[in-house]
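Researcher: Please translate sequence to structure tokens.
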Amino acid sequence: MRRRYLAMLPLAALVLLVIPGTAFGDATDLNKAIAGKLDASVGINTIWVILAGSLVMFMQAGFAFLEIGFSRAKNAGTVVAKILTNFGIAAICWWAVGFAFAFGGPLGSFIGHDGGFFFSDLGAYSATADGVTLFHPSFPVMALSDATIESKWFFQFVFCAVSLAIVWGTTLERIKFGVYIIYSAVFATIIYPIGAHWVFGGGFLQNGDWLGTSIVGMQDFAGSTAVHLIGASGAFAALLLLGPRKGKYGRDGKPRAIPGHSMPLFGLGVLILWLGWFGFNPGSTLNALDGRFAEILFITNLAAAAGVLAAVATARIKTGAIDIGMAGNGAIAALVAITAPSGYVEIWAAPIIGAVAGVIVVLGVYAIDKLIDDPVGALSAHGLAGIWGTVSCGIFTAPRLAQYNAFGDPQGGLVYSGHFTQLAAQCIGFTIAFLFVFSLSFMTFWVIKRTYGLRVSEQEEEAGLDISEHGMYGYPEQFIPQEEYPGPVPAAAGTTPAGATATAMTAERPAET
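Model: Translation complete:
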């Protein structure tokens, strides 16, 4: 009898997937009805949004290489499984409820509740003599772009996936794989959609409608707070409950470096992330026809360049060496910082914002490392730099761009207006977003810790997550003795002792002092 029930599970899963399609089938009929009749601008802008979204999706490869590079070899393979699993979970959750919560109307609301679930309300259209015009009454914050709602769904989904990826870089080498699955579902269903809605989905922080009082709205063009600080806030909650890697702190309490196994992979990851940001910020225009995306790309690149140079100089002054990891984190921190103001500031402000972020990330990593084990420096690169980027809007926002983007003080930031109105809105905004995400994340991780558990055992951590969680090694030839490894024996096989596995693991663990 039990086998019969198990055999029916695939059929039940298929039914669950078909039900939303049959219930909401009329939504997709809209596309069939207007095929070939849309204005040319719809096609052009849709292509641009999908292209930009594809660049942002490619950032998952950047996160993978960065985290693999910062991991020890015995933990390299698990990153691949984590990236793919979390991307899949986020996609299903974003389709089911996340997109509606994040970008559904009405403006100024606490949570989006228009647009329906399972993508059931794609929008509306009006036919004219010249063709068909799309509009999306359920997603008012996106009304300035006529790209199709499917392309906007994809673009915003990959943002959600990036924010989720930020959480996990900090937890390398000691977290249970099941925690990824549980928290990812909560994050992509509730935490990220609500936080993003408040900040740049038309919610009360962006729209300036707080408790029925109309004040200046928060500005965040592409997500310094809505994507990066939200991810870092979840990471902070996880780290407080997870604890450091074994051997990170000596008996005297001082931190010790646990080097990653491949700085070349880390560098490749940084460059892929840098490239992906050319979809992240310019793509947030959701519009190719006005040409603004090129200016935003230029601003993004200038900030990143300044961030690298400032981080390298700061690390050199601080330690007397040019730190490879700090050079990469300088680029990432500057890109995070310029994300919020990229659509609000003039070109001259970009290198200033990027350079300050480069200094912040170096000092932040050294300070945080004394207390919290963050292997990739995400709390600094995405958290502290995300705060700085959000605040920089209140300082450098240009009036012409504030009016163009329709949110915030039309007089601009402190430099232009001479008053602190926008700066105050930015500070209040990121504080509320942080408290919400941190509180919900801490509660989620606390429940997981009390029930399922957060971290692997000491023996599993010692062996490495590749073998203990997945039953295989990312680099098997480094850990499996040659006589047990299939294939021809290499010329240098005599140099590999039978006890290579234990030797390699012992060599990677910092000695106790």
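Researcher: Any highlights?
Model: The CA atoms of residues 69 and 265 lie 5 Å apart.
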